[in-house]
Write a structure and sequence with these properties.
Helices cover 33% and strands 23% of the residues. The protein is of the alpha/beta class. The protein folds into two domains: 3-159, VC0802-like (2-Layer Sandwich), CATH 3.30.2130.30; 181-223 and 232-388, Rossmann fold (3-Layer(aba) Sandwich), CATH 3.40.50. Bound molecules: S-adenosylmethionine.
């Protein structure tokens, strides 16, 4: 049986806080029995399924295809188990490979060392059988392997993604503290934007920075596949890979795209460089014509009539001095919500609970996400229209 005919468990990884949204995405793609984990979602399928997942998931980081699950108490057992895998089915003897490792509660305490033992075992497998071995290193241009090791339980995967999926390929110009694309997508899904977009709602992003939230919202409204710009996904290096299959998946995705967005997507920032970066990024993502960018203070952002989402990602300051200055900004966001956003759903993504209190509105819901290691919250405010709009 060739690699492309096999089925195995597939682990789609993501940061903590996101599996709920990733699971929903994966189920929408037709996968049954998707199982939510702490930082990922588990399904079963083939390498073709991995290709589809790579193309479509907005909130996942890597798509991992299981090669072997085994018990390993220490680095020696790890080495011995990895040596038993028929590596020449996956890597050419004159090829190139990379190993990533994620370990926790193991007798080895450095993930780089665990990765190195995997590398050694693969190299020794080839040396014993062929007296030559593939090169290895940090590049994602060859076969990518991923070791997941918790206590005595190890799983070795083919990483079919390589360069992680948040790197969509459109953000050539990052700006101050850009939000990771997958995190932005999770916040937008949490706000129920795809449903609202179908109904003609608006998506408004004051303080847009490099445009990530607006671009992800536009991609979702257009049903545009997030990985269409990627020409370097790791499955492309697998033996037996047929580029036509990917081209077919990509053109089916392009054919299924909406040609227009019913509502408006408005993105503003008071920094001219942010607006320039956002415009460039949106053009690269293919959504430049669907977002209205404007240079202005957030208080002057146009909020059109009708249902919609207003989503802020203000700075949240790491030093106390910053926090003092930002208190006024957060208070201003609360006032903006009250005075201009009646009837909309308001959201603030922030890592500062202290600043969040300055908004002065009652939150409808708080969702916990992680921005790198920082625990952040997506705060939701229901902004009543008419007589109830000042309710606090
Ligand atoms: C944390 S960044 C947003 C990052 C964005 N989510 C991204 O992914 O790139 C905050 C942005 O708020 C903007 N900003 C700060 N104060 C502002 C104000 N008073 N009016 C408009 N924009 C403001 C900054 O220029 C910056 O681009």
């Amino acid at each position: 049986m060739t690699l492309f005919e096999k089925e195995a468990p597939i682990l789609v990884t993501c940061p903590k806080g996101i599996p709920e949204y990733l699971q929903a995405e994966i189920e929408t793609l037709g996968f049954k029995d998707a199982q939510q984990l702490d930082a990922g979602v588990l399904v079963r399928g083939s390498i073709q399924d991995c290709m589809r997942l790579n193309l479509w998931v907005r909130t996942g980081h890597r798509v991992l295809f299981e090669l072997k699950k085994f018990r390993a108490f220490d680095a020696d057992e790890l080495y011995k188990e990895v040596l038993t895998i028929p590596w020449d089915e996956y890597i050419a003897k004159d090829g190139y490979f990379r190993v990533d490792a994620s370990i926790r509660d193991t007798t080895v305490n450095d993930s780089r060392f665990a990765g190195l033992r995997v590398k050694d075992a693969v190299a020794d497998y080839f040396m014993e059988k062929y007296k030559e071995r593939p090169n290895s290193g940090p590049e994602t241009t060859g076969i990518c392997l991923f070791l997941h090791w918790r206590e005595n339980q190890a799983t070795l995967y083919l990483d079919t993604t390589g360069e992680p999926l948040p790197k969509r390929g459109y953000r050539k110009r990052p700006h101050t503290a850009p939000m990771q694309e997958t995190l932005a997508a999770a916040c937008i899904l949490a706000a129920d934007w795809p449903r609202l977009a179908e109904e003609g709602g608006h998506f408004i992003v004051p303080m847009c920075g490099s445009g990530t939230l607006a671009i992800e919202a536009a991609l979702m409204a257009l049903k545009g596949a997030p990985a269409l710009l990627r020409n370097n996904l790791a499955f492309m290096q697998l033996p037996g890979y047929n580029p036509e299959e990917w081209e077919n998946l990509a053109s089916q995705a392009e054919d299924a795209e909406n040609s227009d967005i019913k509502g408006r997507i408005i993105a503003t920032d008071n920094d001219p460089e942010a607006i320039e970066a956002s415009k460039d990024n949106a053009r690269l993502a293919g959504v430049g014509d669907f977002i209205e960018f404007k240079l202005c203070d957030f208080t002057e952002t146009e909020v059109p009539e009708g249902p919609g989402i207003v989503m802020f990602n203000p700075e949240y300051g790491e030093r106390l001095g910053d926090i003092k200055e930002l208190e006024e900004v957060y208070k201003g966001i609360g006032d903006f919500f009250k005075q201009h956003c009646g009837g909309k759903s308001g959201f603030i993504f922030t890592g500062s609970p202290i600043l969040a209190k300055r908004v002065g509105l009652k939150t409808k819901r708080r969702r916990i996400f992680y921005n790198a290691k920082i625990e952040c919250r997506l705060l939701e405010y229901e902004l009543y229209a008419g007589t109830r709009k000042h309710k606090e």
